[in-house]
Amino acid sequence: MSELTQELKAKIITQLNLEDLTVDDLDDNTPLFGDGLGLDSIDALELIVMLDKGYGIKLADPKEGRKVFETIQTMADFIEANRK
Amino acid sequence: MDRHPYFIQSYCIIRNHTIAINGHPYLAVEHTAPLHDFLRAAYRQLGIDYPKFYKMDGLCKAIFIAVELMARASGPFENDTALVFSNYSSSHLSDSKHAQDISDEANPVASPATFVYTLPNIAMGEISIRHQLHSENVFFIFDSYLPEFLVPYSHAMLDDGKASSIISGWTEVTAKRCDVFLYHVGQAGHIPCTVEHMKRLYQGQERK
Lengths: 84, 208
What we know:
A: mainly alpha, Non-ribosomal Peptide Synthetase Peptidyl Carrier Protein, Chain A, 54% helix, B: alpha+beta, 7 helices, ACP-like_sf (chain A)
């Protein structure tokens, strides 16, 4: 699981152009939106694409995204449970 | 009659890997540096904290830097400062990246972060957010820089009271070429905002 969270952190930094951050700056439980990493709605779409492209997971219910994208850890948990 | 009741308050030129504000050099980097490295160096030299900059495409980044420097040179903009921009290639940088994304035969998936910049007027939105402008804005596509159109257009907006000042000019940014000339026109300043003066400023023949 730790390998997956590290992989997700690297992907998020690259895909979302978070150039000021390194993998070590991101905590598994830091909120991705709001007061945490401060991601926006376009970033949310980018995360949905990342799930689809990188792990073959399509979010059937957009509302599901709120829980899935809460933290790096919740994303990793969701991927582990659903990846094909 | 060659009236010139309006004046240039500040102007910025980004061209050939150099940046000049009011005719004075601000930054110059190696001509071989990739566009994004050059613009990133300029952003870091500004010493501001605006992480969204990194997410912008090349067109937005160049415009962002030019407007930021002009804000420092001629003070914060009134929130009715209008934006009248123009270029030739529209948002071609992002358009071509998006086209590449969706034509990937193995995995044709659009990237929202790229797609969102596939309109040139997005750059004006970014500037409006950054400088809290609640104003008129328009982005023209021309074959080349056209002060014969831009100057009278800006004067008409100012005459009609649509804005207290205007940021206007030419913002051509492609993978190979960055040619940005933006100026802040209003009531104050020393250089009259005439077609002739705006041609000379664009060509780098006149200083404030």
